[in-house]
Amino acid sequence: MSTTAQATPARVAVLMPTYNQAPFILRALDSLFAQTLLEWELLVVDDGSTDATPALIASITDPRVRQVRLEQNRGLGAALNVALDQTSAPVIAYLPSDDVFYADHLASLLQLLEDRADAVLTYSGVRHHYNRNASGQLEGYSLQLVQVMHRRGAERWIEREELVTDDLDRMMWAKLRGRGEFVGTGEITCEWVDHPAQRHKVIQESAGGGINPYRVRYGITQPLRFHSSVGNVIDEIERYRPFRERPDTPLAPDGLKILLVGELAYNADRVLALEERGHKLYGLWTPEPAWFNSVGPLPFGHVEEVPRIGWRDTVKRIQPDVIYALLNWQTVAFCHAVLADNPGIPFVWHFKEGPFICLEKGLWPQLVELYTRADGQIFSSPEMRDWFDTVVPGLSNRAPALVLDGDLPKRDWFNAPRSRRISEQDGQIHTVVPGRPIGLHPHTVGELAQQGIHLHFYGDFTQGLWRTWIPKVQQVAEGFLHLHPNVDQERWTQEFSQYDAGWLHFFKSENAGNIRRANWDDLNYPARIGTLAAAGLPMLQGDNRGAIVATQTLAREYNLGLFFKNMEDLGAQLRDQQRIFELRESVWRQRDRFTFDYHVDDLIGFFRQVVVQ
Asked: N or C: which end of the chain has fewer CB within 10 A?
């Protein structure tokens, strides 16, 4: 490494935020030492790294390089603000520790900035994904740190306490636009290095990140305001404040100590219904959750964390009465590992989805062992129970079993009154799909439009995943597709009760009444059932009479929805105002059944049965 002395004041302050990137950092530093511009200062902000980063930085003897270490990870914005406060050069550049400068990068950016008095920021072209080039800003991304240089000012980066986002424009660049122009060199003078642990990939849901992977990666213990550039706004601070700020419920005389293992998927706050009845909750979470796999530390509190390292010793100390392992395929391997090393605690396995994915992912052996070795089994639907009894014969006789949907919402979100329906105002029929419009192909929505039926599609993140579907639908159903942003639980009743009915998954079953032929569509209770129930909405699904379909059985048993053969049939049923009124009132009367709280006493009774057997 270079030991060049700094003979003149620095013209550029280079800021390097880093967290656990020891395998990259020397390469990044070497690219800085190779710059044709020598008058720079570098401040490395080690944001709580737990790898070899501190020792590597300490080995650098170049006087232009300084290091600041933060004892705990505080996030990109805070690290950059520390660097801004501890450097003095009039111009700022950025070198993330996993990226690379080419030799004339700093010189070309600075020259353009000096040539353009009206410019506040200059940016280079960038190499990315190891063999692709962009002459300026990459399509679909903000300007990246590595390609930017700007004049120093009073602006500061947004920090984690305010917002977590991968949108650097929101974090800083937008603040600079009021002071001048952004000008590009058009030259490829740096590389935005592509690898799985890039920050934007930890944040973006579509890249395998999201709020829960972000929480795990950076060891977050506080609630977050989170908005990726592709996802929905999540404000855990305000949403969960009432739960978080109430005191813990004292342990009831017969209260259980329950160790939650795995993840909680959607509606994670439902488990508070257990704590509110005087049971003590602990959490041992899967280390690699998907964005929708809720893990701790939970933003609503009242669940004590169990560290993954040394968890067995902690479990021996707290002596829980039962291990409640759940929920989706992403946690199967972790829950199986806990089962294999279980220090003698009764173990309940609760699986939501999906067995077919476990087959695809090579997790089937672990899933079968979770069912066969568990002291208690919980199935998400009766159909799921019956299907598993065909693939693991005799399963239902091996241990106590319960049927309970895995991610029902908490009752607290069902308190709002209903809204006036849109159809009462315009005389047309309005249906809603919260989440993916599964089975509603463009031609199908076109057939809906021919019947005068509107489709309201909610969820900006989901809409991004269906972005090719939307224009096709708009072409064949002009004026009948309406796009809306995501709606959080507290607004479900108010928002969705405006509509006449809501869509479950629309599909034609092919199992002909044979449970062995059932697929996931047949076995599943979609999470949106609770959302539609909160609003008292009749639930729409195709008529699969003669087939085994979980949602069909449920809706027929409790008089929850309409079953139709085609869109003309659906239109006729939706225009039957008396029938729709009766259905709407039926769902409204029974909606408590679709809350977790409604089933808590049965669940606790099941735990007690497992504990004493």
From this structure: C
